[in-house]
């Protein structure tokens, strides 16, 4: 009889959880009522994992320079409204040419693009922008970069500011 040692891996992947709802696994359906507290505590890392309400979409957002006033908020609102109307008119299609660009007349821009050999759809982009705005409503509006996940898959990246 040969004995085989039992080993366990210490490198097993950790389940990622939403910073805005720590009881919710990232990429699973998130309902806004799953929030545990209005006094959210963020991780110590620079990036924040924030889940979009009512979807499996989440973002990994890296905030940068704060922007005073309502310029970023207005930019996100206008782009999200445009996406909602687009989805209502033609359905949840893939982002045209793999890039969404929403410039403004004040020098700010919102841009998102396909990533990780996946295609970004307008519906997922809209949910991601909701998550960006939701995070910024809690922590202040700023320039930021973000990765967009649809369930377990990274489907896009973006920048606002």
Automatic annotation (TrEMBL):
Tree of life domain: Eukaryota
Name the record gives this protein: Uncharacterized protein
